[in-house]
Amino acid sequence: MSIEYYHELFAPQIAKRPWIITADAAAGAFRNAQRLLDAGAPGVMIVGGTAGTGTALPDGAELFLFNTTGPTMMSGLRAFQEALSTPPRELCDAIDAWDPDGRAAVLGNFLNRESSLCGRAVLGASRPEWQALEDKMIVDQLWDRAGVARTPVEIVDARDSESMARVARRIAESDGAVVVADNTEGWHGGAEYTRYLAPDADWSEPLSFLAAHATRARVMAFLRGVPCSIHGLVLPDRVLVFRPVELLIYRRPSSDEFVYCGMDTIWDPPPGVRDQMRAAARAVGTVIRDEVAYRGFFGIDGVCTRDGFFPTELNPRLTAAVSLFGAYPYGDINRAVIEGMSVDLRLDEMEDEIVAHADLNRSGRWLRPITHLSADESTPYPIRWTGAAWESCEEGDATATMHFGPSAQGALVFTLLEEKHGLASGESIAEIAAQSFQLADEVLDTRIGELIPGTSDF
Predict the structure, then answer these.
(1) Nearest-angstrom CA–CA distance, 146 and 281
(2) Where is 117: in which H helix or E strand?
(3) Quick one: pLDDT at residue 458?
(4) Among 70, 95, 228, 249, which is most exposed with the fewest C-beta within 10 angstroms?
(5) Under 8 Å CB-to-CB from 267, ≥6 apart: which residues?
(6) Is residue 15 a contact partner of residue 369, using CB atoms and an 8 Å limit?
(7) Across-strand partners of 46?
């Protein structure tokens, strides 16, 4: 069995009709669009929020942009999600002109909250009861029901800053506390609604932020270690689990904010912790299957500490990290599982094959939106890691490519490791990734500034 098997498995279905792909950053869907066209799809339309940063639009693909904007990554995503939920007449007219027979279907993802888009069925859309699992206020009870070890937490009234501060002081250890908002303003990720309460710092600003954006907040001790995630695939009769992923999450000097940048599979946890993470994913996947009939990929974020892995949140959806495991058609697999399609996924072999492939082929990518700059098109900059710093280089010598291009915030710096990146597997690459942003600051005036890895002093 191989990656090619899965692409060939779905090719006959792909060739039957035109396809619509929704992507907040359209460039992120270009490779998938090319894959569909190569498999014989009679047409592909990408519906995007912004042009995005990355490769060029494939020949034969159509593009519709909402040109959504937002000061942060989450606000940009929400603007795009809202546009999909209430599509403008211009979009429906464009789809009708492109697909006059109404044969097209939409390749759904977690941003599709509706079952159709301009009269075209959305395949693989997430159900409301699955989306509800994203609520960070209820996840600790889920860990308990799954028998997964966790750290103590308390749910507090986010509008009562004095009470929240008292709880944080009580629960915090020597490294301070972390507070995260509920879903009052909708689902959230990328650490945008999470704040760090550092020891001996003035907490008034982060607590005021929570009071303004949430009704309740979750308080836990800050965990020193490697931010990471583990992923699984829930099926009717089993749960497949894969390998750990390092999450590139940073802090800034004298700041209460966390900065989410990306992910990699270069890092390896200790073998015992790897086993613990995979067992946790299998247990959680079993619980959400039994309780809400969950189907498809999911992820658990947490921290690898000296005392093992402790989960912090559940992502009941196919996340970007899964794509680091190899060029499998994860979206097709996810939709096949959700829709109950009659295809041979070779489930007895899938888990071992994907894990082995991901362990052998390490990868990583990271990004930051830039608000003081704008870009009309994507420009690649080949760079290489010297062992001590990143430097610009010729394309043939590159160990990574740093792209600068459009985003809903104005511009974006997006770095993707090349296949032959030369980084040794095992240790965290959080510091190495952070140094690439220093090069972006020097070359592109991105003003990202100093980033402190969560692994500092671990």
Answers:
(1) 9
(2) strand 116-117
(3) 47
(4) 70
(5) 226, 228, 244, 246, 425, 426, 427, 428, 429
(6) no
(7) 21, 63
